[in-house]
């Protein structure tokens, strides 16, 4: 997911929503949604698997990116 800035506004490239309409989550909130530790979220961000923006010394992750990551990572279990 990329952020593109035009002359008058910035939008998220994946869904073309203006940034002021995008919901950003903190690392702690992402960890709670995914039910993992904050360190796991930091690893996903630093490895590039989970897109994030940096605000000062902290990261913010688009909520939609978290849902997409979980959807793509889903592993179905087949029964015999």
Automatic annotation (TrEMBL):
SUPFAM superfamilies xrefs: Putative DNA-binding domain
Pfam family, one: HTH_17
GO MF, any single term: DNA binding
Highest taxon of the lineage: Bacteria
The protein, known as: Helix-turn-helix domain-containing protein
Boundaries of every Helix-turn-helix domain copy: 24-72
InterPro entries reported for this sequence: DNA-bd_dom_put_sf (IPR009061), HTH_17 (IPR041657), SinI_DNA-bd (IPR010093)
């Amino acid at each position: 997911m990329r952020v593109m800035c035009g002359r008058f506004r910035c939008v998220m490239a994946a869904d073309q929503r203006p940034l002021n309409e995008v919901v950003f989550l903190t690392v702690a909130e992402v960890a709670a949604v995914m039910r993992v530790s904050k360190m796991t979220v930091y690893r996903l961000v630093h490895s590039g698997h989970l897109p994030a923006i940096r605000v000062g010394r902290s990261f913010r992750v688009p909520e939609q990116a978290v849902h997409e990551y979980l959807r793509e990572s889903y592993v179905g279990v087949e029964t015999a």
